[in-house]
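Attaching the record inline, Q. Sequence:
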Amino acid sequence: PMKERWARIMDLVNTDIESNWRSAIIDADIILDELLDNLNLPGDTIGEKLKAVEKSDFNTLDMAWEAHKVRNNIAHGGTGFVLNQREARNTISLFEAVFREFHMI
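Structure, as predicted:
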C-alpha cells in the first residue's frame, strides 16, 4: 500500500543518516516511475516519460523534474555527490507535491 511506502520514505528522510536520505529519494523516484507508467507515458526512462507529459495535465511537472535530477545526482555521482538533510527533505517535499496532485498519498 502506498501510504505505508510513503511512511517508510518519511521515516528514512527524518533520520540523521545520509545513506537513509539517499534511499528515501531513490525509493520516491521509483514511485514516480510507477506513476508515469500508470499515466501510460511513452519512454524507457523517467526522463523520457517526463518529456512526454502534457504540461496542462501535470501541474507539478517542474517539481518532478527537480526531484528526479537529485535522484540522478545520487545514482550517478555516488559518494562524490554530497547530500545534506535540508536538500533531502526539500527533494522529498517535491515528490510529495507530485504524489498529492495525483492523489497517491
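The radius of gyration is 13 Å. The mean pLDDT is 97.

More tomorrow.
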